[in-house]
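Long-time lurker. I teach an intro course on protein structure, and each term I like to show students one example going from raw sequence to a predicted 3D structure in token notation. This year I'd like something fresh instead of my usual example. Would anyone be willing to generate the tokens for the chain below so I can use it in lecture? Attribution to the forum is fine with me.
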Amino acid sequence: MKSYVRIALAALLVFALANACKKEEAKPYGTPDATVKAYAAAMKAGDFDKALDCYADTALSETSLGVAGLSKDDIRNLFIKSLAQSQEPYAKNEPAKMEVKMLTAEVTYELGGSKHTHTLVNQNGEWKIATDLTSK
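-- Reply from a regular --
Happy to contribute to a lecture. Here you go:
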């Protein structure tokens, strides 16, 4: 076998091995159920900033919360306080019987004996929990 063929085969083998060993990075908000799982994990851990990251950008708008005249920081603080008040079932349980409806981007699951449903929107290729479903 000629040396250039051996070099080409060796280079191809190295390239194939490098690609086979490369792990694809998981997107935390790549699917609706991945977003809800990230949300539940953050709520369980009491990491309300991380839980808030699971929400769409519109979550911190005056219209989504029905408040007017508050700063973004005030709205954020209200939202985090609300998340903290609803942490208990997440701290004690894991989501079960998760069902995803891709056409409506709706995820339903049971948590501590109660049924929960989140509607999600695709925001720049990531699925985020929606709070303001009005069209703009």
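Some talking points for your students: Confidence is low (pLDDT under 50) at residues 8-14, 19-24. The beta strands are 96-101, 106-111, 114-123, 126-129.
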